[in-house]
Amino acid sequence: MTRTFPKEFIERYSQFIPDFDAFLDAMQRPLRRTFRVNTLKATRERALDLLADLNPEPLAWYELGFSLDGGEGLGKRLEHFIGLIYVQEAASMAPPLVLDPQPGECVLDLAAAPGSKTTEMSAMMENTGIIIANDPSPTRVRGLLGNVDRAGCLNVAVCRMDGPSLGRAVVGTCDRVLVDAPCSSEGTIRKSSQALAHWSVAAIERFPSIQKRLILAGYLALKPGGQMVYSTCTVAPEENEAVVAHLLSKQPEAEVCEAELPGLKMRPGLCEWEREQFPEAAGRCRRILPQDNDTEPFFVALIRKPA
Ligand SMILES: C[S@@+](CC[C@H](N)C(=O)[O-])C[C@H]1O[C@@H](n2cnc3c(N)ncnc32)[C@H](O)[C@@H]1O
């Protein structure tokens, strides 16, 4: 299937993606189904045993992540219903791995619904410590509650507040914060032709204002020495490097660290976009492009508050 990408889309992204044809090619290919094993409910071996008929293939960079040919029925499998596995796009598994929450810690997930990353972090923390999983959307919070329950997460407190207000209520208390921000979701173009039909620069411009408020609130919630991941499933620099640059302009001591996940190719962030220059630290952000690992595009920035 060949899709027509808007001229502006091509003009914007061919500026900084040198293998642009490979990018466009990948953006037109349907995504492979992926899932991760939920270690709160099953071992890797047990889950693989139960799903052997689907021939899951391990992701190169995450031992609990798998992809499938076909796999449309995965969401109807008993293993999914009882929470032994969680159906989740592969690149969406990366931000929690970069944040690396530890057992016993206090973690804030500021924009959490429907809970893919909350449930992933809960398993990484072995159901200990606490995750405050927040989302202001009543309908999406219902999904979050259902997923937290299905995945057997006992260390999650669900909260329904505006993220910036919540950040101000918990200043200086969190070991780690995830800001998986609302975004224009260019990443979902691989999943749905509707996403491409709705693409516009105007749609991109709707998000930086809330994204900037969320990244600042997340940073304020960190303890000294704490770490935050800011992530989006979009390519637009306005929603990514420009948001990190905004944080650095308000909190110049914030440190952007180089995230690495062995086996997952990530490209450095941009230090300029159109006529805007970003601090050199923006280059330490990471962009996951679809042609590199056969995933959705994603953006990840790992930020540390000095001790
Ligand atoms: C990309 S989605 C989060 C996906 C989720 N982290 C996951 O992995 O399942 C962004 C979320 O931000 C939420 N959101 C929108 N405005 C917000 C605000 N002011 N404060 C906090 N979250 C907000 C949306 O309701 C949406 O659920």
Could you name the key traits of this structure?
alpha/beta; Alpha-Beta Plaits; 2 domains; 33% helix; binds S-adenosylmethionine
Cα separation of the termini: 52 Å
* Bound small-molecule species: S-adenosylmethionine
Could you tell me the mean pLDDT? Answer: 96
Number of strands: 15
- Provide the low-confidence segments as ranges: none
**Rounded Rg:** 19 Å
CATH architecture of the largest domain: 3-Layer(aba) Sandwich
So what's the CATH class of the largest domain? Alpha Beta
Helix content range = 25-40%
What's the structural domain tally?
Answer: 2
Individual helix count: 13
Largest sheet data:
9 strands, mixed
Strand content: 15-25%
Please write the string of helix (H) and strand (E) elements.
Answer: HHEHEEHEHEHEHEHEHHHEHEEEEEHE
Describe this structure in words.
- There is one protein chain.
- This protein is an alpha/beta fold.
- It folds into two domains: 7-21 and 89-304, Rossmann fold; 31-87, Alpha-Beta Plaits.
- Helices cover 33% and strands 22% of the residues.
- Helix 8 (163-169) packs parallel to helix 11 and helix 11 (208-221) packs across helix 12 (241-250).
- It is globular.
- The structure holds S-adenosylmethionine.
